[in-house]
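Justification of resources, computational component.

The compute hours requested in this renewal are based largely on the per-chain cost of generating structure records like the one below. Each record pairs the submitted sequence with a full structure-token output. That output is archived, and it is also reused by downstream analysis tasks.
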Amino acid sequence: MYSEWASLSSLIHNGNEENFSVLGKFPMVEGKAVAVSVVKHLAGNLGISQAAEPSPLTTDREVLWCMEVVCFGLSLPLSEHDTIRDCVFVYCEWLSALHPVPKISVPKPVCEDPNLYARKMINHFHNLFVPRKGEAWPFLYLDIGHDVINRQAVLCHRVLRTLQTLAQVSNRMNRETWESLLLFLLAINDTLLGPPTVKDDVGDQLCERVLSVLFEVWLLACSRCFPSPPLWKTFREMCMNWRHRMALIEQWNRVNLVLTSKLLEFMYGPSFPELKVSEEDAQLIPSGMTNDCIAQAWYRFLHCIGDPVDLCHPAIISQTQKFLQYAITSEDVVDPYQHPCLTQLPKIFSKAIRGIAVLVDSFLGIAQPYMDEGSSEKKESSSHPSSATHSPTPPPQRRLAKSFSVAPSSAIKGMPKASLIGLTSGRTVTTSHSTATTNSGPSSTSSLTSVLSNLGQDTRPPLAPARPKCNSILHMFGEWLFEAAHIGCHGSTHISDNSRLGEASTKRPSSLLLDGSVRKSIGSGNSLGIQGMVVNASPSFSPASSQPASLNDATELPPTLTIEKFESGRAEALGALCRIFCAKKTGEEILPVYLARFYLALQQGLRIPEDRSGDARVCGEVLSSIILNSADLFRLDLDGVQVLVPYVLDALEIILPDKELSPKSQYVSKTELRRASIHLLLSMLVLPLHFQTLPIRELSSGSEKNYNPLTFIQLKPRLMNLLINALQVESDPQNTQMLLGGLLLSVQDAAAYEEMEQGIQLDQGPDTPSNLLSSDSAHALFVQATYLVCHRLMSSWKSDLNVSLAALELLAGLARTHIRKTARKLTDDLECKRAVKWLCDYVAQQCSRPPPAHSKDLHSSIVAAFQTAATWLSAHPFLLHDKECLTTVLEVVELGISGTKSQGKPGEPIKMKEEKELKPASMRVRDAAEALLTVILEQVGYFPSPCGAESLSSLLDEAALLRHCRSPSSLTPPFHRNCSNSFYSEQYKGSSPLHHFRYFVIENSTMLALLEEPLGVSDEQDSQPTVTLLIRGPFGRHAWSMQLRHLPRHKSGSKYHAPNPGRPIPMGETSVRPDFKPRYFPESVDRIPLCKVDHSIPSLESTFVEDEKSSMEHAHLARLMERQVAAEAAAMQKSKALLEQIRDSGGQVECTPPPVCHEFQTARLFLSHFGFLSSESLKEPLNSPIAPLMALDINQPGFSHDLETLDGISCRTCDTVHLFYVRARQKTADEILSNVNSSSTVNPHFLEFLSSLGWPVSVHKHPGWSGHVSTSWRVTESSSGFDLPVSDHGGSLYNGENKVLYWADVNSEIAFVVPTLKSQKFMDTISTDGSLTSGELSSGPASFDRSFSDRGYLPPTPVPPEKPMRTFSLDLERQQQLAQQDGSAGASSSNMANEIMPPAPPPPTRQKRLGRQGPGSLHSSGGDTKVLVVWLESFEDWINVPIGDLLNSMATGLEGGTRPSERESFVIFLHALQTGLLRVKLQGPSGRMTLATPLVDGMVVSRRVLGTLVRQTSLNMCRRRRLENDAYHPPHVRRRLKIQEMTQKYMIKMSEPELYTYLFSSPPS
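The structure output for this chain reads:
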């Protein structure tokens, strides 16, 4: 940089003649006498002890003579302290001539030409700092007390403070004066700091102060009068002579950091992350300093100490004149590099490299302040006791004097120092931090403690989006960092010390010379080697060219200077390099030579050294720094980075399986180290199955010819074993969850791979129990994962909610994993049974914990365990065929519902149901147990139903059932509540379908709708009592059709009633009919006389003689009897006349059987047969005001609306995931929503990913959840344009308007929607409560609040004839086309029924809008969670995605009137790498429950399992959010509550006789 300029070092070393006084020619006694008398008089006029007076010196000659005396006085022995003090005071006062207002005591000639005299005075001050003749500074303190030293030091501080103030306030200094001042400061620094450090000498006392003044005044000179190149060159040479001083590096770091802060501010603007420095340090930069001046000063200061790597070479540092002089004069030191002060070089080297690392972090935008080394300061303070007890600065000036100090000081021990990010010490700043890190630790960012609670999220600050390219940073700092990274590498090429004694080279030939073949060698896909980089690189490059010969022979160096002592600095360099390369942006290119040097440095750093104390391998500082700072190494598209996989895997095998791992550096957090290792492991798990047999090349170019390269598939067993072993010993909750996510990824990836590759068997031999643990097949991993997770869940994870949830999520994922049949063995049944048994034991163990341990978290884990058990049973129905498994499951269900088991401990009697007290652990636990019981009874082995997985409920409702009725009177227009586009013509005047049903509520939880009319085709000869039920319960709607039959169905063909047998043949003899009058009593009764007792019973006539009312009633009864007798007589007479007429005509009367009965009161029969009409059943229970059987009044307003609302509450959880595609550098929502309109604007893998999330369904034909309540749980007739095929789309087909992607199981259903601008506008037309206006029925989904009785029949929409009608799940024995018939929809009801249930009001002519109490509000009770999946073309765009704007296109109708918050949303970012793998990043709200698994922040996954993992993670996110929400109710609870609400609102309070009368009457119509 300054090779063409001359240095001024000789002027400094040889001294200046102006520093010598003429009095020095005389004997000391005479000179001293003159100086004492003259100086004393001069000092008397300064105003120190009395008022200041004008100076008597009026001519230049007088002033110059006095200055000769003062010059001599400054060189007097230290014992003449008063005289020296007066000399200092005189000059300090006279220097005010350069101030804007000089003091009155300044001589007139000095005021007239201040620069000339100031230069002379500055030069004379040099005498104060140099050793006196005949005195050696290191030995002064043996004879002179500490008071003398302190007073002398105070004078030095006074001079330095005066000069510093002069430079700050003076505006009259010319260039010559500035140069004289700078040369003076260089000279005194060289005088004090040049010699080897001796404890407690003046150089040690003043080094902080003189260095701070030098650097600060130099910065002022850069602003006021930029130093000339000779001065810069001299400054650099002087600094290189002082590198054995710790204070120099601290001051260098301090100034570099302040200049870098200003540099970043004007280079990258205010949006770039601010590099925070203290207010005190920020004042170092003058306010008027220009940007160009800052840039020039920054670069020159950065290089002022030469090559920092020289600090690890004692021979180079000690090659100075003063070290050589000391070695010559000392008997103890033979060679200069053996001086004891050089033992501090490891710490100095570490601090210098750390300074460079912080500068690197500053350009990356991730520099963070934290406390400086605390323990090292304590060690230094113990080695400097005098500085701790005798401060040379007087108390009034101590704060100012020490405000610029950089060496350790006892005055501020233990206080935070965030201003220089751990690079300097000795200054007090007001920050608050809780961690301490020393200069021997790893990188500045790696030691930060974790403050985020989200699973696997990176605890480091995010990289600045506007950060410079990696090449730019490497051009500036790469040479130093690469040299430092190769310190002590084995097999390195050494250079001689003599070649490094001169000026350090700043050229970068090896970084800029490129060869085209090198780039191609990296980008080639045939091999992942980089030999071409090393071969084609510049010849000047060697793997470790910075290794000096002085460090080779350990016997010549003291133990404190061996290469191991410099490991901390090397760790800092490697950590900085890792952060640079991990800051690579998407699409950014890094020079191949840099990649080659980086890979070689990592290869050397990842070698596991053996501990000198034994053969055990340990994790050293270098390895720790690499692991901590390279978490993103395999997540980026670094060319050829896969060559490092074996080396990284070797390192991870040392860290992760070791439970008692003790990092060599005590400042490395074991948890953070393991977390970084897990991040690396998660990015390597999919590599073997992705690259398969692709060989991994060696980095070394001199490999043997017969070398068999390692392939990726060979690493799979090691990776799987490492994952299992790490999970076995991991104790940190967050790390455990990350490993659980990786384990599920491995199992599902292996299963998907084996399913695709049917003919390939990865493992050798069958998975017998003997080799199961050594196999890496999907089945073997399935077995190992199930056993390990269940075991640890029971033993050590049960007390941690997040870990328990992650383990249960993994078990649920394993249950859904499909292992190909050829890989499954006999152990399948046993493993599945064991898993369910462990889940039941886990629930029992959690429930049996003492009451103080029961909390919300505990119950959440129990609820999750029940849900996991339901997943296992539904995925493996054969488990219920096992008696023992079934008993275990039902026992734990009983425990969850009642709180205890009927079968207690062995020997205890069995408790019956009525004997137990109902005390569940909590209502949430009871609800979860009920849900599991329902799954066992209704779904296991029957899911999915013939109707598909879209609905667990029957697709039939009242209107659909009436369409299949036999009775012509019940035929109504084809009406279905879910067919919102089926309208009715004007000729249909039938009543509402509800009036054909009787509605009852049983046990206040189940609603029955009974239809007494038979279904199917009318058959007069085979009419059976038939009842059809719609059962609406907590777990869905079900349709039953029951028939009372006297014969089984297979015998129903034979008639059970005989045909007409005809007239019997008359007998030949006619019997004689005796004619007698029947008697009620025998004739002997009339002959018995009456007694008094007989007269005690009055006659009938005597009872109403005296009672007028009784007489009237008797008369009325008599008239009725007479009327009845007359009617019977007339009927008899008519019958006789008819018989006579027939007899006269010669005919005979045939005997015919009565007609077959077609009218049955089947509702009464059903309720009676099922025990609901018994006296006990009709009594109101004591603990409830509602009887077990209650009839409902369907004629009350709002019943049909509430019934539809009940049907709109799904019996499963419903979630929605919205997917977005973000192209590079897009920041607006409109741009993002427009990407999916065409396949040409999206990655083809994005469409492949969409197809793996679920199956496409048509919104208008889909009976399940469709992403919005306005189109969910209904089947609508689509218009002609709805189902038109879309040939070219980028995912817009699934925008929710016509189609969505759907997936469901027995517990949940989830819809995947790809919003577009068109769908957003469509959603904007929907009201906030999820309904549409009446004018929108013709073009979009119908209103959700359409009810049976609240709307009139509208004209039907024609259906294309070629489109078949939807078939329902009702099994009809015979189906025929029913002819439409006009007529009444039902018979008239009796008077009693009309009194109980008044007739329904006429249907309104206007449609009603649903208010906020619609179905959407019922679903939004804590169940709506916003989940976004964002596909990124450029990974750096994740920070710019407008989540808040995208939420506007994610309406589901479940928001409940509240606007979704960006902070409450979960985001899954996906970025496709060039290798075909995908990188995952998670973002979500922080809370007690972290982000769900299996996806983990930073994980790298394959395309095979991407859709499955995203779907499972989304479901688990929503489930965790529901568990955390106190206001959430499960779906079956919401349905039960709705039924109870309807019961309270519409129940008919009837007595038992009234209920029987109601049942014997016909239903109202």
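The longest strand covers residues 1213-1222. The chain has a mean pLDDT of 76.
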